[in-house]
Fold this sequence. Notes:
The structure holds two protein chains of two kinds. Chain A is mainly alpha-helical. Chain A has a single domain, classed as Helix Hairpins (Orthogonal Bundle), CATH 1.10.287. Chain A has five helices and no strands. Chain A has helices spanning 2-6, 8-26, 30-52, 73-103, 108-115. The mean pLDDT of chain A is 88. By secondary structure, chain B is mainly alpha-helical. Chain B has a domain at 281-497. Chain B is built from 22 helices and two strands. The longest helix of chain B is centred in the C-terminal third of the chain and has 32 residues, at 331-362. The A-B interface holds A 21, 24, 30, 33, 37, 40-41, 44, 47-48, 51, 71, 74, 77, 80-81, 84, 87-88, 91-92, 95-96, 98-99, 102-103, 111, 115 and B 137, 140-141, 144, 148, 151-152, 155, 160-161, 163-164, 166-167, 170-171, 174-175, 177-178, 181-182, 185, 188-189, 192.
Amino acid sequence: xxxxxxxxxxxxxxxxxxxxxxxxxxxxxxxxxxxxxxxxxxxxxxxxxxxxxxxxxxxxxxxxxxxxxxxxxxxxxxxxxxxxxxxxxxxxxxxxxxxxxxxxxxxxxxxxxxxxxx
Amino acid sequence: xxxxxxxxxxxxxxxxxxxxxxxxxxxxxxxxxxxxxxxxxxxxxxxxxxxxxxxxxxxxxxxxxxxxxxxxxxxxxxxxxxxxxxxxxxxxxxxxxxxxxxxxxxxxxxxxxxxxxxxxxxxxxxxxxxxxxxxxxxxxxxxxxxxxxxxxxxxxxxxxxxxxxxxxxxxxxxxxxxxxxxxxxxxxxxxxxxxxxxxxxxxxxxxxxxxxxxxxxxxxxxxxxxxxxxxxxxxxxxxxxxxxxxxxxxxxxxxxxxxxxxxxxxxxxxxxxxxxxxxxxxxxxxxxxxxxxxxxxxxxxxxxxxxxxxxxxxxxxxxxxxxxxxxxxxxxxxxxxxxxxxxxxxxxxxxxxxxxxxxxxxxxxxxxxxxxxxxxxxxxxxxxxxxxxxxxxxxxxxxxxxxxxxxxxxxxxxxxxxxxxxxxxxxxxxxxxxxxxxxxxxxxxxxxxxxxxxxxxxxxxxxxxxxxxxxxxxxxxxxxxxxxxxxxxxxxxxxxx
Lengths: 118, 497
């Protein structure tokens, strides 16, 4: 029971990660690929934040009577990773706009057909 | 004032190109962004040269970013390994930018050029940042800076396939970087630190946990995607082929090399060779993949019709040689691998610069454009031949030197060594095949009528091309600099743990 309920966050991380990864690999729609990539990255954010959590831990502010603090560093690290994720998503979507202009489609198999590859 | 600057050299190494990126973007006066980028790259090269000399005796230079002492703050750490890589990367940056002015003028419309140069500077800053930092999370941040800017750079290609190539690179690159991020998370979970030197002292206590083994696997696979190690190389050929000429030169000579550095740094310094090769079967995996990389990369190169594709597939094969050197797991093998990083960067830059000259005149780099080019563009083609001989591994070129040391390192190994040597020989024979095909078309075919009028590339393009061609010969004859630097780097790495 402990392994399922106690590690609930980590199970969610694994499930999200696999969903995201599967969408990136299996879907031929470019926007869905980017969304899949996003889910994949988000699962890692949750992983980091879950690592920081301590049962009964307080916010990391010095105050009398509190001995357990939640580690704030993973949150800060993940803030950086979120920014990176947004930049990647933005760049990916911008590329899709230009791909749409150049090929008039955003389906991967149709793009390959138009290029004569595959 | 001067002393103050000298103390801050490690910070300047990254800050100079990072600060110049917005400058290039803001000052949109014709020709100015290029000038800023070029001057910055020369300054960056000077900084890395000074750093290289400072640590040449085996000292380690530790710089606390913002005055926060490591392991709490971010530490920049220069040793003989990364100073050698930084010297290489910033040197290639200077040559690429020298080539860029004319080449970019012809390939990218004027109003977009400032964006191009600022992305170029960001990419340089990112690559140097990965090399210099001693903080594991910082590696991820700089990895993404360099990756995002190189996606932008590649998407500047004129062919519409540049866009799909960029998209594929973006997907694979992000997955690779995210995997490194997962690995870092696991390591932080077990040790509570992100400083590499600190990690190296704390990891042994928890080495026997599955968490650390998983972290190791994630980081190795993430770095291998960035390295384009077979079979994780699919993004590379198209990204190199459809990017603008300058970008191909720069990325081919730098980005995969930096990824190899990430792999070396994590495997040898952070995890330690004992864990990586003793407990985990990394040696067999790397050796197997590297051998396949040499064979398939070289074989694919033989059958391509776009010359940029030929060289891109040959890059995959050459990456295999570097990894073979690493997987031999001796100081000589490691030195040979690092030496090949240096030598391959020089000759691939030379080849792609020559292709850039051809592209400048012909507007494409298909094999039929090379008909009779030996007569119409003799200087360009001569530089190409020198680079090509390097790929084959002819004596008096850099390619021979690194293969020679690779063979020496392999001979110490007995049975595995014999297999390795035969793979190196087969790879070299395949290189003869794909280089000869181009040379044959260039020298023994007559140019078509409309192509016969095409003149030699302008001097502004020939000078950087020949700098690299002469470097290919120079470092092939006078080997003390590169061999000593590579051996020192390998000793530092092996002695680190």
